[in-house]
Protein backbone atom coordinates (compact mmCIF):
# COMPACT_ATOMS: atom_id res chain seq x y z
CA UNK A 1 0.00 0.00 0.00
CA UNK A 2 1.03 3.62 -0.50
CA UNK A 3 2.16 6.20 2.00
CA UNK A 4 -0.54 8.91 1.55
CA UNK A 5 -3.23 9.91 4.02
CA UNK A 6 -5.86 7.95 2.20
CA UNK A 7 -3.76 4.81 2.39
CA UNK A 8 -3.14 5.31 6.10
CA UNK A 9 -6.83 5.98 6.67
CA UNK A 10 -7.78 2.92 4.62
CA UNK A 11 -5.49 0.71 6.69
CA UNK A 12 -7.14 1.98 9.83
CA UNK A 13 -10.55 1.31 8.32
CA UNK A 14 -11.60 4.98 8.11
CA UNK A 15 -11.89 6.41 4.62
CA UNK A 16 -12.22 4.62 1.33
CA UNK A 17 -8.88 3.82 -0.22
CA UNK A 18 -7.95 6.39 -2.84
CA UNK A 19 -10.24 9.11 -1.41
CA UNK A 20 -9.29 12.09 0.76
CA UNK A 21 -11.32 13.75 3.50
CA UNK A 22 -13.82 15.45 1.23
CA UNK A 23 -14.04 12.77 -1.38
CA UNK A 24 -11.34 14.07 -3.71
CA UNK A 25 -9.41 11.44 -5.57
CA UNK A 26 -6.01 10.88 -4.03
CA UNK A 27 -3.19 8.96 -5.56
CA UNK A 28 -0.80 7.19 -3.27
CA UNK A 29 2.06 7.24 -5.76
CA UNK A 30 5.04 9.57 -5.90
CA UNK A 31 3.53 12.61 -4.15
CA UNK A 32 2.00 13.35 -0.75
CA UNK A 33 -1.58 14.51 -0.36
CA UNK A 34 -2.35 18.03 0.87
CA UNK A 35 -4.40 18.97 3.91
CA UNK A 36 -7.74 18.26 2.25
CA UNK A 37 -6.60 15.26 0.28
CA UNK A 38 -5.80 17.34 -2.80
CA UNK A 39 -2.37 17.39 -4.37
CA UNK A 40 -0.11 20.04 -2.94
CA UNK A 41 2.48 21.17 -5.41
CA UNK A 42 4.97 22.18 -2.75
CA UNK A 43 5.42 18.58 -1.59
CA UNK A 44 5.21 16.80 -4.93
CA UNK A 45 8.17 14.78 -5.91
CA UNK A 46 7.86 14.85 -9.68
CA UNK A 47 8.70 17.58 -12.22
CA UNK A 48 5.11 17.97 -13.43
CA UNK A 49 4.57 20.33 -10.50
CA UNK A 50 5.95 23.25 -12.53
CA UNK A 51 3.53 22.58 -15.34
CA UNK A 52 0.59 22.37 -12.97
CA UNK A 53 1.62 25.60 -11.21
CA UNK A 54 2.09 27.41 -14.55
CA UNK A 55 -1.32 26.25 -15.77
CA UNK A 56 -2.94 27.27 -12.49
CA UNK A 57 -1.56 30.84 -12.75
CA UNK A 58 -2.02 31.24 -16.51
CA UNK A 59 -5.61 32.40 -16.17
CA UNK A 60 -4.64 35.17 -13.76
CA UNK A 61 -2.26 36.99 -16.09
CA UNK A 62 -5.01 38.87 -17.94
CA UNK A 63 -7.40 39.21 -15.02
CA UNK A 64 -8.88 42.53 -13.98
CA UNK A 65 -9.68 45.68 -15.95
CA UNK A 66 -6.01 46.67 -16.35
CA UNK A 67 -4.57 43.32 -17.43
CA UNK A 68 -3.43 42.17 -14.00
CA UNK A 69 -0.06 43.90 -14.22
CA UNK A 70 1.52 44.60 -10.89
CA UNK A 71 1.92 48.34 -10.26
CA UNK A 72 -0.66 49.47 -12.80
CA UNK A 73 -2.86 50.90 -10.05
CA UNK A 74 -0.04 53.26 -9.12
CA UNK A 75 0.12 54.59 -12.66
CA UNK A 76 -3.66 55.04 -12.78
CA UNK A 77 -3.70 56.88 -9.43
CA UNK A 78 -0.85 59.15 -10.54
CA UNK A 79 -2.69 59.91 -13.78
CA UNK A 80 -5.87 60.78 -11.90
CA UNK A 81 -3.94 62.97 -9.45
CA UNK A 82 -2.33 64.82 -12.37
CA UNK A 83 -5.74 65.33 -14.00
CA UNK A 84 -7.19 66.71 -10.75
CA UNK A 85 -4.18 69.04 -10.40
CA UNK A 86 -4.56 70.37 -13.95
CA UNK A 87 -8.30 70.95 -13.51
CA UNK A 88 -7.72 72.70 -10.16
CA UNK A 89 -5.07 75.00 -11.62
CA UNK A 90 -7.35 75.80 -14.56
CA UNK A 91 -10.22 76.67 -12.23
CA UNK A 92 -7.96 78.88 -10.12
CA UNK A 93 -6.78 80.75 -13.23
CA UNK A 94 -10.37 81.15 -14.41
CA UNK A 95 -11.37 82.47 -10.98
CA UNK A 96 -8.53 84.99 -11.12
CA UNK A 97 -9.68 86.17 -14.56
CA UNK A 98 -13.26 86.59 -13.36
CA UNK A 99 -12.10 88.54 -10.28
CA UNK A 100 -9.92 90.81 -12.45
CA UNK A 101 -12.86 91.42 -14.79
CA UNK A 102 -15.09 92.44 -11.86
CA UNK A 103 -12.35 94.69 -10.49
CA UNK A 104 -11.98 96.37 -13.91
CA UNK A 105 -15.75 96.95 -14.22
CA UNK A 106 -15.96 98.47 -10.75
CA UNK A 107 -12.97 100.74 -11.38
CA UNK A 108 -14.42 101.87 -14.74
CA UNK A 109 -17.83 102.62 -13.21
CA UNK A 110 -16.35 104.61 -10.33
CA UNK A 111 -13.91 106.44 -12.64
CA UNK A 112 -16.71 107.43 -15.02
CA UNK A 113 -18.85 108.68 -12.12
CA UNK A 114 -15.90 110.68 -10.74
CA UNK A 115 -15.17 112.26 -14.15
CA UNK A 116 -18.83 113.08 -14.79
CA UNK A 117 -19.22 114.56 -11.31
CA UNK A 118 -16.08 116.65 -11.74
CA UNK A 119 -17.23 117.87 -15.19
CA UNK A 120 -20.71 118.74 -13.85
CA UNK A 121 -19.28 120.75 -10.95
CA UNK A 122 -16.87 122.58 -13.27
CA UNK A 123 -13.66 120.91 -12.09
CA UNK A 124 -10.39 121.66 -13.83
CA UNK A 125 -9.46 118.11 -14.87
CA UNK A 126 -12.25 115.49 -14.93
CA UNK A 127 -9.92 112.85 -16.45
CA UNK A 128 -7.32 113.50 -13.72
CA UNK A 129 -10.01 112.88 -11.09
CA UNK A 130 -11.06 109.67 -12.91
CA UNK A 131 -7.41 108.52 -13.04
CA UNK A 132 -7.01 108.97 -9.27
CA UNK A 133 -10.18 106.97 -8.54
CA UNK A 134 -9.25 104.20 -11.02
CA UNK A 135 -5.73 103.85 -9.52
CA UNK A 136 -7.20 103.69 -6.01
CA UNK A 137 -9.23 100.67 -7.20
CA UNK A 138 -6.17 98.79 -8.52
CA UNK A 139 -6.61 99.49 -12.23
CA UNK A 140 -4.98 101.64 -14.91
CA UNK A 141 -6.79 104.32 -16.89
CA UNK A 142 -6.28 103.69 -20.63
CA UNK A 143 -8.85 106.07 -22.05
CA UNK A 144 -10.90 109.04 -20.89
CA UNK A 145 -13.16 111.30 -22.90
CA UNK A 146 -15.44 113.98 -21.48
CA UNK A 147 -18.03 115.71 -23.67
CA UNK A 148 -20.04 118.37 -21.81
CA UNK A 149 -20.99 116.48 -18.64
CA UNK A 150 -20.77 112.95 -20.01
CA UNK A 151 -17.64 110.88 -19.31
CA UNK A 152 -16.49 107.79 -21.19
CA UNK A 153 -13.74 105.86 -19.31
CA UNK A 154 -11.75 102.77 -20.29
CA UNK A 155 -9.63 100.90 -17.73
CA UNK A 156 -7.34 97.87 -17.66
CA UNK A 157 -6.36 95.46 -14.84
CA UNK A 158 -3.79 92.69 -14.66
CA UNK A 159 -5.12 89.10 -14.68
CA UNK A 160 -3.06 86.93 -12.29
CA UNK A 161 -2.15 83.51 -13.65
CA UNK A 162 -2.84 84.36 -17.29
CA UNK A 163 -0.52 87.32 -17.75
CA UNK A 164 -3.21 89.13 -19.73
CA UNK A 165 -5.38 92.11 -18.96
CA UNK A 166 -9.06 92.61 -18.27
CA UNK A 167 -10.50 95.68 -19.98
CA UNK A 168 -13.71 97.46 -19.02
CA UNK A 169 -15.50 100.53 -20.31
CA UNK A 170 -18.09 102.70 -18.55
CA UNK A 171 -20.09 105.81 -19.37
CA UNK A 172 -21.64 108.22 -16.88
CA UNK A 173 -23.33 111.61 -16.99
CA UNK A 174 -26.43 113.53 -16.00
CA UNK A 175 -29.82 112.24 -17.01
CA UNK A 176 -31.52 114.41 -19.62
CA UNK A 177 -34.93 115.62 -18.40
Short summary of the structure?
With 177 residues, the protein is an alpha+beta fold.
List the main descriptive attributes of the protein structure presented here:
177 residues; alpha+beta; 3-stranded antiparallel beta sheet; 3 strands
Describe this entry's structure for a reader:
The protein is of the alpha+beta class and 177 residues long. It folds into two domains: 5-58, no CATH class; 72-172, no CATH class. It has helices at residues 5-12, 48-58, 72-120, 126-136, and strands spanning 140-147, 150-158, 165-172. A three-stranded antiparallel β-sheet has the order 1-2-3. Helix 3 runs antiparallel to helix 4 (126-136). The longest helix has 49 residues, at 72-120. The protein is rod-shaped and about 120 Å long.
Supply Rg.
Answer: 43 Å
Largest sheet: 3 strands, antiparallel
Mean pLDDT: 76
Cross-sheet strand order for the largest sheet: 1-2-3
User: What is the rounded distance between the termini?
Assistant: 122 Å
How many β-strands, per DSSP? 3
Report the oligomer. single chain
Please estimate the helix content. 40-55%
Succession of helices and strands: HHHHEEE
Shape: rod-shaped
Annotation field: number of helices: 4
Count of domain modules: 2
What structural category do the secondary elements indicate? Answer: alpha+beta
- Roughly what fraction of the amino acids lie in strands? 5-15%
